[in-house]
Structures are given as structure tokens and as C-alpha cells.
Amino acid sequence: MGEPRLVERPQADDAARRRAPAGAAALSGLLAAAAGIGVVELAAGALDAVPSLVLSVGDAVIDSVPGWLERAAIAALGTNDKPVLLASIALVAALLGAGTGLLARRRFVLGAAAFVLITALGVAAGLAAPDASAVLTVLAGAVGAAVGVGVLRVLLAAAAADAAASDDRPTTDRRHFLLLAAGAATVAVASGVGGWLLSGRERVDQLRAAIRLPVPVRPAGPVPAGADLEIPGLTPLFVPNEEFYRIDTALRVPTVDPAEWQLEIRGMVDNPFTITYDELMSMPHIEADITLSCVSNEVGGTLVGNARWQGVPLFRLLERAGVQQGATQLVGRSVDGFTAGFPTVTALDVTEAMVAVGMNGEPLPAEHGFPARLVVPGLYGYVSATKWLSAIELTDWDVDGYWIPRGWAKEGPIKTSTRIDVPGPGRTVTAGERPIAGVAWAPTRGIERVEVRIDDGPWQEAELAERLDVDCWRQWYLPWEATPGVHVIAARATDGLGELQTDERTPVAPDGASGYPVIEVVVEE
Fold it and tell me: Closest Cα to residue 310, out of 384, 213, 379, 237?
């Protein structure tokens, strides 16, 4: 007989984890990541001082990507940019979770360390959020990491036990793993949904429902007959709130209680002051029909809308504050840290510029800035339309708003533009009399003429809807005897100052796209 040999046996758990199938290990890591994230999201929903780590990572991505990539994303995705970003973050988190599961299958301590490192990166992003508590944010991240690592250990052990089971009894061990996996998925979903429910959106809707807008001292005029042509497919004169375009940097709509909200007027003023929501509501209000446009709106694009806004004129607040000499810029600051700046003279001279609290006859929707936002006719939103407004700061011209260092122009006057709505681009229509119709806008200047060209024919003057206000777009239409074939239709507008929309085609950066909208239409017999 040979001499006995000492055989070092690995610990059962480590050996079992090494025997866990790769697929089960990847699933274990994915579910562990989901459970850990869900717990942190629950804490974020319950505690205002704890930010969502998912949204914080998204904010970090938005703040760090180059301007050209942001422009490309908005051009390609439009108002779907945020859902796509969040879906991408979820996909990356799932892949990282699966990767940590595979790493832990080989050596658990490495997988756990990777899990903690990834969580730490999320916490670092969360600490940059406004009003984040460092202690609570780190604590929430630590709890989330602990839950994730714990779930990973339990699931890997169960998966390994299933793999190691003898052929005559695999069902019991597999059922045990599947029950644990289902439990982890339940924790993840319940925590995530619970965090969303606790985030305050439903409460904001309840608060909005209880608000009654005051009667404005200067209401908008009645809508004249013929101001809305009501042609099928033509954008309505007033875009419903739920259909109004939304482009901003907020991945989650801020939830602000108007009872706790305050607006601070500060900076280069003689009499800085703070005003509450009730005080703002008790001031004299105005109404105005104003078309807003995003600077990222491509020629013929849909990132533009018209609404009836209600609020307090900006110049009234500035008169109370006393603007100092040299205060050439007004910077709006949002509760989420966004900033936008425009010339102070605009706020003083454009009487319809306002701190808005109402949109189309109801309190501002949460997505559009509740409880208060800035609305400034004639300026693209990136320099003026601060939502969820928290402060108005008077500065000199050297202070830059959020988008300026990202490649956009310091000043952003809206260009005279038009869009063809009917027929829709690429549509096929039958021959016969058909309307060509659309909208044209030049806020603060108004629209005096719209012309349409079909193929290589002459420019034909379109019929304009009745004028409502110079800040408001106008609908237009041209009767067309459509003949079979492929036709190219172009349009151009002339504003109230007699300036013709330029035919020079330019991209959206740095100060808005220009050029005539052109569509191709197929006409069949």
C-alpha cells in the first residue's frame, strides 16, 4: 500500500458555486442586481434626500456626453430620448449583473467586489444630485449592495445544489432554485414599483386637481372664427397638454409641493426677495397665446407647440426687485439644477414674458413645469423655458446656462418657420382636390404670408387662418388639384416684419435649423 495522501477539500459552498451552470449564474447575477437596485429605488421614493441611482447615472450620462451626440439623440429619437436612455441603462445594469454572476461562479469574492464597485459608481453619481444627503445616499447604496450580494450568494448556492443533485432527484433542487429566483424577482419589482409610487407623482396630480387658477386681469382675447381651420391631419390651434412636446434634461419629472415651493429673486438686484406659491397666485395674472419651439426642432419637425399660458408678468417681479445696472442677463434656475439665461431687456420689454402657472386653462402639468415655469415669447426653450422654477437670478452676460458650454449659441431667437402637416410626408393620396395645409410661426413678429410651391411650379400664396396673436402660430392651407404621380411640395413663410423665411439649409446647432420644409407625396388614380 502506498503512503496515505492529504487531500485539501475546498469549502462546500465554493465548490458548489464553481459547479453552478453558467446560465443559472448569469441569471443569479441579473436578479441580484435587480433586487439591489430595487431596494435603493424604494429608499429614493421614501426619502427626498436619497436620489434614484438609476436616474443619477442617467443624469451623469446626459451631462457628460458631447453636444454632438446629444443633438444626434434628440434628432433621432425626439421626445423618446429619455425612455431610450433609461432602457439602455437598465440593459447595461442587467448585463453587468449577469457578468458579476459569472465572475462569482468562479470566485465569489471577486463577483461580490465587482457588485460593490458598480454600486459605488452609482452612489457617486447620486451624490451629485441636488439636495442629496451624503450620509443617507451612501447608506442606501450600502444596503442595496448588501441585498444584492446576499441574493447572489443564495441563488448561486441553490443553482449549484441543483447541478450537483443526482439524476434521480433533480426536480426538488431545481424547484428550490426557481422559487428563490422568483422571490428575488418579486423583491426587485415590488421595491421598484414601491419607489415609483412613493416618488410623489400621484400626490402632485391630487394637488393640481385642487388648484383653481385666478381670473386674469388681462385675459387672452376670444378665439375668432376661422382661427382654427379644423382640417383633418392639421395640427390644432392649441395643442392639448398631453400632446405638447417635451424636451428637457429631467429623467424623472420633479415632484414639487406648491405649499413648500418658493421662488427666489436674487443676484444683481436692489431688493432680493422670496415669494411663495400662494403669493404668486394672489398677484395680477395675464393670459397669452404663445408658441414655444425647441432649438432641436428640425425643419418640418414636431418639437413646437402652441398653448394659452397664464401667469405673472416677469417685468412686475423685476420691478419689485430693482434691476441693477450691468444686470444684462436673467438666469432661470430649476429645482433639478438646470439653468437657462436670456437678455434682461427681453424680460422687461416683452410684456407677455411670464412666470407661468397655467397651461390651456389648467394648472401646469407636472411634465411642463408644475408649479411654475418661465415662458418667454420669441426665444427657443434652451435659453428661456426653465421648468420647475426655483430661482430667478440677475447676472452679467458672462454667466452661461446649461446648454451654452455644450455647443449652443448664447442667444436663441426663434427663426421664422413653417411646417407642412397635410398631406403627411411620404403619404399616398388619391387624385382630385386635396388640401395642402400646415402651421407657420414667428413669435413676437407674427406671420403675414405663407407660400407653397408644387414641383417646379411658381410660388402660390396660401390662405391664412384668422390671426390670434403675433406670439401665436397661424394655420394655412392651399387647395390642390392632385394629379397622379410623385410630387414635391415646399413651403415658406414671411413674418410680420416682412422678412422671408430663409431657404439656406442649416442644422439645428448652434442656433436652430433653417430652410424650407419639403415633402414628397405619391398621388394615385
Answer: 213
Half-sphere exposure of 337 (CA within 13 A, CB side): 12
Same domain for 90 and 147, yes or no, is yes
CATH of the domain at 498: 2.60.40.650
Read off φ and ψ for residue 39, nearest 5 degrees: -65, -40
Each residue's pLDDT tens digit, 414-460: 999 999 999 988 889 999 999 999 999 999 999 999 999 999 999 99
- 77-88 residues labelled b (16+ CB within 10 A) or e (exposed): ebeebbeebbee
Q: Which segments of the chain have a pLDDT < 50?
A: 1-18, 166-167
Q: Which domain holds residue 455?
A: 417-524
SS3 content of the chain, % helix, strand, coil (to 5): 40, 25, 35
Do 250 and 183 fall into the same domain?
no
Inter-residue contact 134 to 127 (CB < 8 Å):
yes
Q: What digits encode the pLDDT tens for the residues 248-269?
A: 988 888 889 999 999 999 999 9
Residue 215 domain flag: no
Which single residue is written with the C-alpha cell 434628440?
74
Q: What angle do CA 125, 126, 130 make, to 5 degrees?
A: 115
Q: How many residues does the chain have?
A: 525
